[in-house]
Amino acid sequence: MPTAPQNTDELYQALEENDRLPYGRTRTVTAEELVDAAEQLAEPVPLVHALFELQEAYTYGSEPRKSPVVFARLLNLFDEQPDVFDERRRHTLFWRFKWVADALRVLPEIPLAGLRQWLTEMRDRYEKAGLGLQPYYGQAYQLAAHIGEGTTLAYELWAGRSRTGLSDCEACEICERALYHLAAGDDERALNDWEPVLAGKESCQEEPARSVSYALLPLLRSGRVDRARELHLAGYRNCRRNPSMSGEVGRHLEFCALTGNEARGLELLAENRNLFGEVESPLDLFDFLTGAEVLLQRVESLGHGELPAAGYAGRTWTVAGLRAEVRGRADDLAARFDARNGTTAHTDRRRARLDRAPLVDALELTLRTRGLDEVAPAAPVAAPAARTAAEVPESLPELILRARTLDEQGHPDARACWSKLRTLAASRDYAHPDDPAVGPLARLRADLLSDEASRTGEKDEFAEAAALHEEAAGLYEDAGAPGDAAVARACALLAAAEIPAEIPAEGAEGAEGAEGAGSADGADGAGGAAVKAAALASAHAAMVRLHEEASGLAPHQEARLLRLRATALGMRLQTSGDEAHVAPVLAEADLLLAFATWHELGGQISGALLLRATTHALSGDLPAAVTVIDGVRDRLKAHGPAWHLPRTLALRGRIQLGLRDAQAAQADLAEGLRLAADWPADVVDTARLHADLAEVCMHLGRPDEALRHLTRSAELELRRGSRTDAYCAYSNAAQLCLDLGRVEDCIALLDSLLAEPDVAAGEVDDRLVAQLRLTRARALHTGEDLKAATTEFVALAAESARWDDDPGSHVMIAAETAVLLGESGEFGRAREAAEQAIAAHARAPRYEQLSGCLRELARLQAERQGPEGLADALARLADAGRIADEARAAEYEAQGRSLDTALAYEHGRVNAYAGAYEDALAALEKALALLGGPTPEKGEDHAGEWAECLRLTAAVEGIYLERPAPALNRLDAAVSRLTALGHTEEAEPLSSLANRLRDGG
């Protein structure tokens, strides 16, 4: 807290601001400071409020030892100055007797007699105040359930009584009743009791997160697996990293362990590592540690005890080591509670949890389902072996010669040979063969560097790839292999041309909306494309010179040089899209084709033909591309090489999609994917096949299948170390999840990605991470978690304000942030965010996004504040009017209804909310005039907009201005017009309103 409040107004403002913070040390420390400040003011009422805030911070910040101390001060104040406590403060005081009972119960050092003494104090106080005793009996039951004795009688004494104004909320009482039935072994009755909470009909600070965590296993046992999965995703999100809900986190860890999701369990354990040191409640810690031990025990039993695990700070842990530590601490806590209570309840409950067998073999909880084999400290995870694995020779000379022969052919199995050679050559006792056919060690080192460079380039690490190719070229020269050196230098030229160019910020175009935030392309906009095209042209010219100067080239080496030359020009065409660049590519492809045909190089023949097909496709001549690709496919089927078929079918599928034949595209891509299974995934680019199939499935209206292909594509990209491509694919999958309404799947996927070590360490492109966070914030908003969504949007708006090269994205983010702040009722902060969006809009206009933001803010403020908010709402509409004027001057055409029409309609709604009905009617009539009536040409969407605008106009006129006759005339004419055009659905609300007006309503 920067400065202590100097008067009561400042104190109350500080208390209000602190109340908006999440529970935790920051909020608690501030609450402590505010109590000190309140004491200095020497006024009892502010002190009471400050103490209430401090007790709440201790209670929900998992500091139960301190909560009773604060309450004792409040009780003394009540006894000494009862007049200070008005009805609301008195209600709060008596409510919090229960908080103290809860706090004392979770502390094993508090004697059982002390717990019962406090309940007696509570009962006496309630009776003296004339309050009903149902809350007291509720606490008595909870103590009995905790101890494990006398539960049935205590339950009946509580559950049979009528609720009072001081009873726990409906959601909490439902949970206690359900837990009673659960302890009795009646899953079905427990779940029936829980249903209102699980369905979201009853909730509070702790619910439904608490009930969800307990209901997961009963749901599994009763066969409601999908419901359990859904509630796990939503429930875990609401309790993660929260010390006061550590027991709930423990039950989610247990759920993962018992459903074949041990890897996810370890991921969640890592995300909640803070709980090992931040949970002050021994009972909550006991629950958390027991759940964690269930998980760790399961992982160790599966033979993965040496996997790394996140545990207590100050050292690194393995699963086995952490399990031993957790077991000791949890056993100690159980013993302490049982000693205090005089029963074995906690030891027995703990043993029951640890003895449970898995309830489901494998339940797919998230879109990133991973096994324990993938939770290894080294990354990336190796790709699974292809079905036709390479036969690697045992003899070292044979292995070297075999690798070179396969490499000359472009055979995928070359990589297995190079991998084995890399391991052998790195060993201390490696002895290079003294064999003229093998050549010197320098040549082998050059071969290995060349293979490493190719792999590095596939990860888009072009600068490093270029350096490795150059190093390989030098070693080839030292080894007396000038042809290989020439090829390596040509590869270095191509890799260097692909290094992203640095474009000055003032010359760069901003990304279009949120999607631009995820761009990993260094060459941004038209300027970057021109730079890259020029670099590729220069690389081609240098390759031509290199080719001309080289001598003694073997046919396979010369073919590779020709292939690299054609590739450079093909990439230039792809970058520039310039029609003038088509002919040079075809000319180079023809040179390669003629050379490869003469020397019978099958792989290079198909490569040349694929280049031709790709060039036709890039130039827009798709029929010609199909003709060429069909010839390649037929040739490969007849003569090979077979490993080119998956890539050929993938290209054919993309061309068919370009021809709008999604069915044919799907058939080609599916066949390509089937054939790709015979080869290493990174060689035939199986990830790209899955990504293309995802696109095709979307065209075919099969989004769920598209989602599966997207996630598979992302997994394969991760396996081969292409993490940026993987995150981009996952980002698309998350957005598709959100579009499909699978909100919790979307959030769970993004939470998992954002917890990745390289993301957390800031090693991933910040715009790509921002895109992931932005999608997550939108999902939180869709899932009605307004507080969490607003917090994320505010943070993103602050970050995007620093994106000088991309003001357009800041417009979008700041505008969305303003709307969320408006939905939260924080109109001052919303106005500030909107002003940020307006300032960025001046640099990168986003007419529709900004206009929509300003209109929505105006509507929200008028709706929430009525006449008091009208002036500010109209100010926002005035800003939107200026945006519409700018758009008109720039000849900008909105995608939907015009900005002027939307603005007039919003003027109508805003004035109606504020009770300015004449102004509302005038604005709505203007909107109707701008919209124009429905016609066959304008379509269904326009008819719906017009009908809604007319409905609101008639409601204002007929109901609020009490002029039913003209309103009915409008409605009847509109219904006739819409019905005649076949828009019966759009006419129904108008008919309903007309009937209401005729009935005098």
Briefly characterize the structure:
The chain is mainly alpha-helical.
Descriptive keywords:
2 strands, mainly alpha, 71% helix, two-stranded antiparallel ribbon
What's the layout of helices and strands?
Layout: H1 8-19, H2 25-41, H3 44-60, H4 67-80, H5 87-95, H6 97-105, H7 112-128, H8 134-147, H9 151-159, H10 170-183, H11 187-198, H12 209-221, H13 225-237, H14 246-257, H15 262-271, H16 275-278, H17 282-301, E1 308-309, E2 317-318, H18 319-341, H19 345-354, H20 396-409, H21 414-426, H22 441-458, H23 462-478, H24 482-497, H25 525-549, H26 555-576, H27 582-598, H28 602-619, H29 622-639, H30 645-658, H31 662-676, H32 681-684, H33 686-699, H34 703-719, H35 723-739, H36 743-754, H37 757-760, H38 766-782, H39 786-800, H40 807-823, H41 827-841, H42 847-865, H43 870-889, H44 899-913, H45 917-931, H46 939-960, H47 964-980, H48 984-998
Antiparallel strand pairs: 1-2
Helix pairs in contact: 1-2, 1-3, 2-3, 3-4, 6-7, 6-8, 7-8, 8-9, 10-11, 10-12, 11-12, 12-13, 12-14, 13-36, 14-15, 14-17, 15-17, 17-18, 18-19, 20-21, 21-22, 22-23, 23-24, 24-25, 24-26, 25-26, 26-27, 26-28, 27-28, 28-29, 29-30, 30-31, 30-33, 31-33, 33-34, 34-35, 35-36, 35-38, 36-38, 38-39, ...
